[in-house]
Amino acid sequence: MVKGKLKIGGAAVALVVLALLLSGCTSKPTNEEKAQKITVSGSTTVLPIAQSAAEAYMKDHTKADITVSGGGSGVGITAIGQGTVDIGMSSRELKSTEMTQYPDLVITTVAKDALVMIVHSSNGLNSINLTAVRGIYNGTIKNWKELGGSDMPIVIVGRDSASGTFGYFQEFVMKNENSTSLMLGKNSNGAVKETVAQTPGAIGYVGLGYTTGGVKALKLDVNGALIEGSAATVLDKTYPASRDLFMITKGPAKGLAKAYIDFILSPAGQKIVQAQDFVPLK
Amino acid sequence: MTPAAGPKSEERTTLRADNERVRPRFFRKSGLRRRLTELGIRSLLFIAAVLSIIIIFFVILFLFREAVMAFSEIGVSRLLGGDYWNPSGVPPSYGAWPLIVGTLLVTLGAMAFAIPVGIGSAIFIACLAPPRLRLALKSLSEILSGIPSVVYGVFGLLVLTDWIRVTFERPTGETWLAASLILGIMALPIIISVAEDAISSVPKEYIEASLSMGATRWQTIRRIIVPSAISGITAAVILGMGRAVGETMAVLMVAGNSAIIPSPITNVFSPVRTLTATLGIEMGEVARGSTWYSTLFALAVILFVITLVINTLANYILARLKDKFRPGARKPERAVLRRWLRTRALRLIGKDGTQKFELPAAARTWLGRAGRAFFVLALLWLFVSWFGWLRGPVTLAVLAFMYVGYGKLAEKNRQRAAFALITAAAVTMLFLVGIILYFIISNGLPAMSWEFLSQSPSDLGRKGGIYPAIVGTLVLVGGTLAIAVPLGVGAGIYLSEYAKEGWLTKIIRAAIDNLNGTPSIVFGLFGLAFLVLYLDLGVSMLAGWLTLAFMILPTVIRTTEEALQTVPVPIREGSLALGATKWQTIRKIVLPNGASGVITGVVLGAGRAAGETAPILFTAAVAFTRFLPDNIYDPVMALPYHLFILTTSIPGSRTQAYGTALVLLLIVLPMYAVSAYLRFRIYKKKR
User: CA-CA distances (angstroms) from residue A110 to A49, A94, A262, A271?
Assistant: First the structure.
C-alpha cells in the first residue's frame, strides 16, 4: 500500500515540477525583490578582484550575498547582455557587434592590468619585442634559437576564444592576425601560468598577478628600451601592453550591484585591487 | 535479458486477453472505487510516459532545429569539410573537420589501448581468476565506472601530461596520446563489465564439451568461449567507444585543444581538439541566435549522429547475442533481407540467384594475400612514422618474429604465453586504477578537516572549505531525482506493462536508447540554450535539475523497463487469475520482484548526476557563493565544477583541489557500490 502511494505521490511531484517549469518565465523574482543578492560572472582576469572584494564587502554587510563565477570575458558580456547575471566582468573592450547587440550596457573601469609575456624560469631570454611575439604566435618563429635562445621548439600557450585576455592580445599584439592553430588554448590565466611553469619550451601571456612561481616575466623591448610590466610602468603609461578591466551592468547599477561596484572603486576597494597584484586606477 | 523475455509480443497479447476476460467479473464485485483507482493510476503512468517521451523528442528536435541555420548559412560541405576552426576570428571561420578528425583520432587511440587491456581483463576475470578474486574484480570495475570524468581530468592534467612530456622528451604533454590514454582508462570499466557478462554467459556445456575432447584451457578460450561471446565482446567495445566519443571534461583538460589535424596524421604527440571540448569551451560565450551559436548546435548534431551510429550497431549486435543462445531462435529479419539483396544483386549480373556465389579459388588466395600484404604495409607505415626508419621496421620484425615463434610453440607453452599476456592486461588495469585512486587519496587526505567540510571557501578557494559545494551537489542530485524518478519510473512501468507493442514503441525505445548514449555536454548545451536563455530560468538550480534530469531520464526509463521485463510471466498470470486487477498485480507482484533493478537504475542516475560537470557548466554552477541557495532560481556551487575551477584557474590551490576530488569520490563511489551490489544480488537470484 505504502509503495503505491509513493508512486502516486511521485507522479504528483512530477506534475508540480512540470507546472513550475511551464510557469518558470513568469514567476521569476525580479531584480528589485532580490536586492540583497547578485551574481557576478565573466573574465577570469577580473575574478580575483571580484571575489576578494566580495569577501571583504560581505564581511561588513552580513546580509549581502554576492556570487562570483568565471568563464571568460566573452561569457561575462554575453551573460550580462542576455540578462542571466547582474554584473558581467570583462578584461577587453566590447566589440562593435556586441555594442550594437546589447545597446543598454553600462561599463565601469574598476582597475588596470598589464599583459605580460611569461616563459619557463629556465629560459635564458630576458626580453622580447612585440614583433617577435607576433612572429611566435602567428607560427613563423618556431624555435627559441631564432630569438637567440637555446635550440628548443617553442610551445605556444594562449587562451581560448572566450577570454578577454585573448581578445586584447589578438587586437593589440597580433593586430587582428589570427593566432596559429598550434597554440594550446587555456581557460584561465592560472592555467596558462601552470602550463608555462611545467613546460621548459613554453611562452604564454597573462595578467600581472600571474608572473611568479616557476615562470619568468619577459621585459618588453620598446625601441631599445627594456620595460618591465609593473604597476608603476602601467600608471606612467610607459608599458605598452596595458589595459583596463571592466564591470558591466545592464543600465546604471542599482542596489547591491551599485554598492558593490562603488566599494571596489573606493580607497578600500582599490587597496584590494593592489593586494591582488593589479594596478589601481590612480 | 533472460530467454524468458524473448518473444514479447505474443505473450503480451495473451496476457492482455486473459486480463480482459477477468476484468468484468472483478469490477462487478468491487465497485466503482477500485475501477477509478485503476483508471487513475493508468492515466498517471500514461502522463508520465507521454511527458518523458515528449521531453526526449523535444531535446532531439531542438538540437536539430537550432542547427539548421548553421547548415544553411555556412553550407553542409564547408561546415563539415572546412579545415579551419576559428569562430572568433575576423572573419570567422567555421570548419569542423579538424574537430571531427580530433574526435575520431582520440577515440581510435583510446580503443587501441582499451580493447586489448579491457578484453584481456574480462577474460582474466571470467576464465582465469579464482571465484573470490573474480567477484572482487568485477565489483571493482563496476564501482570504477563511477569515477567522475573531471577527476580523471585532474589526474591527466597534473600527472599524465607531465609524464608524457618527460618520458617522450616532447615540448608538451598535452597531446592526442594523453587524451587517448585517459579516455582508454575511462572506457575500461564498461568494456570489462559488458565483455565479462558475455563471456560468462557462454553455456557451460560448450566449455565442458571442448575440455572433454582434450583441448587445453587456452584452446577452449580461444576457439570456443571467445567466438561464442564475440557479439557481446563487440558490443562492449562499441559501448566503450561511445563513452570515449562523448567525454568532455577529461579531454578538455589534457588534449591541448588546438584545432589542428595532426601532421603527419599518425603523430600522437600533436595536440588535438574534439567536438565535445569545443562545446565545453565555447558555449558559454555565444549569443543566442548568432551563426556561432547555431554552429555549436551543428557540432552537437554531428555528435548525436555519431552516437546514433554507435548505438545502432551496439543494439543490433546485442540483439543478435540474445537470439544466439535461445533454442529455436528465428532468423533475424536482417539476415533474410541480406539474402534477398544478394539474390537480386546476383540476378543483375546474370547469375542464378539460387546458387551460392563464390570466387574462383585462385582469386580468393590472391585476395587473401593482398589483404595480408596491405595489413603488413599499413603496420610498417605506422611504425615507421612513430619510431623512424631504423627502429620502426626493427620493432615490426621483432613482433613478427614473436608471432611466428608463438605458432611453433607446443600447446602447453602457447597456453603459458597467452595466460601471461591476459594476466598482464588485468594487472595493467589494476595498476592504472590503483595509481589514480592512490594519487587522489594520498594527496586529498591532508586537506581533510572539519573546517574543510563545514566552511565556505575564501581567498578564491585557496583557504576555507567546500561546504557550499557539498550541499550544492547533494541538492542538485536530490532535485534531479525528484524530477527524473517519478517521470522515468512511471514511463518505464507504462512502456513495460501497458503500452501495446508496435512500431511506435519501437521508435520510442530507439529514441530513448540513443539519448542514453548522447554526450552529457549536449544536454548542457540544450540546458543553456533552452532552459537558461529561452525560458529565462537563468543560471539556476532549477535549470541544473532539469538538465540533469533530462540527461538521466533515458537511463531510468530503460532500467525500469528492463527490470520489469525480467519478472516471469507465469507469476503475473497467477496474480491475474486470482482476480487481482492490473495495477494490483503490478504493485504487489511485478514491482517488488523488479525493485532491485529499478533501484539500480535510479542509483546509477544519481551517481551520474553527482559526478557530471559538463551539463551544469553553464546551467547551474558558479565558482563561489557564500550562502546556500534559498530558492530554486539561485545558482549553486557543485563539487565537480569546483574541482574543475580550482585545478584549471586557481594556482596555489592544489591541496584544496585534491581534497575536493576525494570528497567527490566519497560521495559518488558508494552510489555505484550500492548499484553494483544490487545487480549482483539480482544476478544471484536468477541463477
Answer: 9, 15, 9, 12
